[in-house]
Amino acid sequence: MAEVGEIIEGCRLPVLRRNQDNEDEWPLAEILSVKDISGRKLFYVHYIDFNKRLDEWVTHERLDLKKIQFPKKEAKTPTKNGLPGSRPGSPEREVKRKVEVVSPATPVPSETAPASVFPQNGSARRAVAAQPGRKRKSNCLGTDEDSQDSSDGIPSAPRMTGSLVSDRSHDDIVTRMKNIECIELGRHRLKPWYFSPYPQELTALPVLYLCEFCLKYGRSLKCLQRHLTKCDLRHPPGNEIYRKGTISFFEIDGRKNKSYSQNLCLLAKCFLDHKTLYYDTDPFLFYVMTEYDCKGFHIVGYFSKEKESTEDYNVACILTLPPYQRRGYGKLLIEFSYELSKVEGRTGTPEKPLSDLGLLSYRSYWSQTILEILMGLKSESGERPQITINEISEITSIKKEDVISTLQYLNLINYYKGQYILTLSEDIVDGHERAMLKRLLRIDSKCLHFTPKDWSKRGKW
């Protein structure tokens, strides 16, 4: 059996942790770092095949030293110009390695062909036709845990512009480890999930203090209190473009409010693994959702979007802060982004790849929104109601590819007597109605006061 002193970075071994059911388990983990505090060794571990937000420091008592796997010696790498280093791979070759041809039983429906309804166990209600004979294109499937779901039918290879980059090849040991222990934001204390590039001198503090209105950071409670006597903000800077009840949305220009935008990105990076932080916030708009009380407008979450997006992205990054998660706010942020797209008169889609939590939220929103449309269709003259993919996309502002992938994800498209139909079973209908009863927070378009700008005519914005 190995000794504690033999454990080095790169070792793999089972580590004791508690699962969601409060039961002990021993998943395989990798040692990312080792430190010594007062003669006691601590090990920073990443649980293999688990999300990075579960990474933590553990003592040697939680390590199973009997099953330790030591790292293999690295093979010699080819040299270039006399300097050691790995040979950069061709981008095309990298993408091809990830390509997997998918041949689903049901081809993708066309976007303009209407459909008739056929019953499924006597309980079908709506249908959408599709053009026969069209084969679904192959997907570029990423191996990353946060990659876009393969059923979306679009490449999930990361693009190297915008605000999200999932290429892990540039990760180093520093960015793989959480560096902030705790953040105090107003009345909440948050434990970060991931690395965030706050100034290095702040990373050794037990608590990082943030002003909840301007998001400026300080090293102590005394610093924060001194700042609060001078900070006159009680809401995010920018224009309030929506208010209903206690919920407000503020539109913030990344060029006009650079300091706030950068502080928001630093905070968001604590909870978004694949977000690449850009200190150049000029090309982005930030939409911050707040909850109002007698002390001011408290940040709940936000999303950012590019002022000009050639790929029809209506969201770059999206985040609900942990104290407000699982309360319907995430879906409200998504719904608001599509309300803006409706005012702009275009369809939109979130920047890919989505995080694991982001994909769940979007799948749920797309499903509920599309089912709401289908269940609201009325039959005319006793005929079965008809609707096309294009019409669903125009009504909802959801991009056509996302509409199609959602219908396939729900397994609603069927081939019957020469045409493609969409059938809603009683189970689907009942499940949707139960979900909508729980969805109490909705965007009221009458409360939105938003005028889109044509950023292409504004030079440098």
Describe the largest sheet. 5 strands, antiparallel
**Share of helix, binned:** 10-25%
Question: What is the molecular shape?
Answer: globular
Overall mean pLDDT: 81
What amount of the residues lies in strands? 15-25%
Order of neighbouring strands in the sheet with most strands: 15-16-17-18-20
| Poorly predicted sequence stretches spanning 5 or more consecutive residues | 84-107, 115-170
Which class of secondary structure composition applies to the elements? alpha+beta
What is the straight-line distance between the termini? 63 Å
According to DSSP, the number of beta strands is 23
Q: Rg from C-alpha positions?
A: 25 Å
The number of helical segments is 8
Structural description of this entry:
The protein has helices at 91-98, 221-230, 258-269, 329-344, 356-375, 389-396, 400-409, 426-438, and strands at residues 12-14, 17-18, 24-25, 28-37, 40-47, 56-59, 79-80, 83-84, 99-100, 139-140, 183-185, 188-190, 208-210, 217-218, 239-244, 247-253, 284-293, 296-306, 313-315, 317-320, 349-350, 413-416, 419-422. It has 461 residues and is an alpha+beta fold. Mean pLDDT is 81; it is low at 84-107 and 115-170. α4 (329-344) crosses α5. The strands form eight sheets. Strands 15-16-17-18-20 form a five-stranded antiparallel beta sheet, with helices on both faces. It has a four-stranded antiparallel beta sheet with strand order 1-4-5-6, with no helix packed on it.
